[in-house]
Design a protein that fits this description.
- By secondary structure, the protein is α+β, with helices and mostly antiparallel strands.
- It has 8 helices and 10 strands.
- It has a 6-stranded antiparallel sheet with strand order 4-5-6-9-8-7. Strands 1-2 form a two-stranded antiparallel sheet.
- It starts with 16 loop residues before the first helix and ends in an 8-residue tail after the last strand.
- A hairpin with a 5-residue loop joins strand 8 and strand 9.
């Protein structure tokens, strides 16, 4: 079927042509016109469709390759990889809810729940003594195609979290709301988030199903309750090419 030609904006203040083409292709991916695993039309096809030079098309596709949306494969063409997950960390929110707003279906592919003794780092962040027992919940959160997050969460025992791991395959904070009576929407607030870029070791690479040495975003996160006491201390790891975060600053932010 003949592709309809698309007219680009050539006005003086318009985006460069390659960025307009990039945004068009990205929009097709986010709206699932191109799905994961689909082969994009060739550069020549796009050249004819947009009536531009081949280098303009190549620059557009190259940016999407660098950003992790596409992959060039020899003898096959340019393949759609995935939709990048973007999390808004301006407020406490359920990760499941945040991803659902972007049309991403998230499930939990691994859960471990145990009581462990807090080391000095965990104790300091939860405001307890070293060797005090804490609840440690480890989870891997995944899309249909790939893991998007590996998280180690720590809670003090007096929060009375259930220890049945089957309860944590859905939303962590919805489970806390149901079994602990704590409404995360009104009673839990962000305390701090610190991000560090690291390289995946073999253990982390296995959990995130990536190659060792690939970039990973490490996030140290704390939430607090209404009394200002730390509720959750968490260490999260995200594959750097599949995850991004955003922060929105309101007028009343001090």
């Amino acid at each position: 079927m003949q592709k309809q030609n698309i007219k680009l904006d050539n006005s003086p203040n318009a985006l460069p042509l390659y960025l307009q083409i990039k945004n068009y292709i990205l929009n097709q991916i986010t709206e699932k016109k191109y799905n994961v695993g689909d082969i994009l039309p060739s550069e020549l096809d796009f050249q004819k469709q947009f009536n531009v030079s081949r280098i303009t098309v190549r620059n557009a596709i190259s940016e999407l390759v660098m950003e992790g949306y596409l992959e060039r494969t020899r003898g096959k063409g340019t393949v759609v990889l995935y939709r990048k997950a973007t999390e808004n960390i301006s407020h406490a929110n359920s990760f499941s809810s945040e991803m659902a707003q972007q049309g991403l279906e998230i499930h939990t592919s691994f859960v471990s729940v145990s009581n462990i003794r807090a080391n000095s780092m965990i104790a300091e962040n939860l405001g307890i003594q070293p060797d005090d027992f804490v609840v440690n919940i480890q989870r891997i959160r995944s899309t249909k195609e790939y893991p998007i997050a590996y998280t180690e969460s720590y809670f003090t025992l007096d929060r009375n979290l259930p220890v049945d791991k089957e309860l944590y395959y859905g939303s962590l904070y919805e489970t806390i709301k149901e079994y602990c009576g704590i409404n995360w929407k009104t009673e839990i607030f962000r305390h701090s988030d610190t991000f560090t870029a690291i390289l995946a070791d073999s253990n982390l690479a296995n959990k995130l199903q990536i190659n060792s040495g690939m970039p990973v975003l490490k996030r140290i996160s704390k939430t607090q309750d209404r009394d200002g006491r730390i509720f959750e201390f968490a260490i999260c790891y995200y594959p750097g090419d599949k995850y991004s975060c955003s922060v929105a600053f309101g007028e009343n932010l001090k």
